[in-house]
Design goal:
It is built from seven helices and six strands. The chain is about 55% helix and about 20% strand. By secondary structure, it is an alpha+beta fold. The chain has helices at about 10-25, 30-50, 60-65, 105-115, 120-130, 135-150, 170-179, and strands spanning about 5-10, 75-80, 80-90, 90-95, 100, 165. A hairpin with a 2-residue loop joins β2 and β3 (about 80-90). It is globular and about 45 Å long. The strands form two sheets. A four-stranded antiparallel sheet has the order 2-3-4-5. A two-stranded antiparallel sheet has the order 1-6. The chain has one domain (about 5-55, about 65-179).
């Protein structure tokens, strides 16, 4: 197989990587998919706010909100150094979006639409990298690893939503260097 490069936006790459990491940390695939998508959304929202693209909505008094009980069984899952809201459902753990469980099928469709025919090879490369570390070490190093292989895009607002190159050979090289 030759040098494998995928032209893609960062958000689906982070979504897939976070899902692969969540699976390696013990979550089933449906839970991992929803957690990965939620994490990518949180990161995009934070970056959009830093760039002035998104503006946080007014939600009233934060101290008052913190006293309200969370809907359902909402709790936080730490993934790639971030706290991702999650909840228990009859189907298992799911990321929580607005107090409702996220749908793993919609995340699958999202990844299929963004990666196309390259989804399986990208997932395989990420799984090899995640598998090259013990889960406890991966939990700590997952985001710094992502920073090493994520697609390079222009800085600031010029790079917002732009595609860059995801180099699967770089992922394989990182996996070999960790094992």
């Amino acid at each position: 197989m030759g040098h494998r490069i995928i032209q893609i936006n960062r958000a689906p790459v982070l979504t897939l990587w976070a899902a692969v990491v969540a699976e390696r940390l013990g979550f089933d695939e449906p839970a991992a998919l929803t957690l990965g998508r939620a994490l990518a959304g949180l990161n995009a929202q934070a970056k959009g706010q830093r760039l002035g693209i998104f503006h946080p909505r007014e939600h009233g008094d934060a101290a008052e909100r913190s006293r309200e009980p969370p809907p359902g069984e909402v709790f936080a899952v730490e993934l790639l150094g971030r706290q991702v809201p999650a909840m228990n459902t009859e189907e298992g753990v799911r990321a929580s979006a607005g107090g409702k469980p996220a749908d793993p099928q919609s995340v699958r469709r999202y990844l299929e639409s963004k990666f196309g025919a390259d989804l399986a090879s990208a997932r395989e490369a990420m799984e090899a990298l995640a598998g090259s570390l013990e889960p406890a070490e991966l939990a700590v190093k997952a985001y710094p690893l992502y920073e090493q292989f994520r697609p390079v895009v222009p800085q600031g607002t010029k790079g917002w939503g732009k595609e860059g190159e995801l180099d699967l050979d770089l992922l394989a090289s990182l996996a070999r260097s960790k094992s």
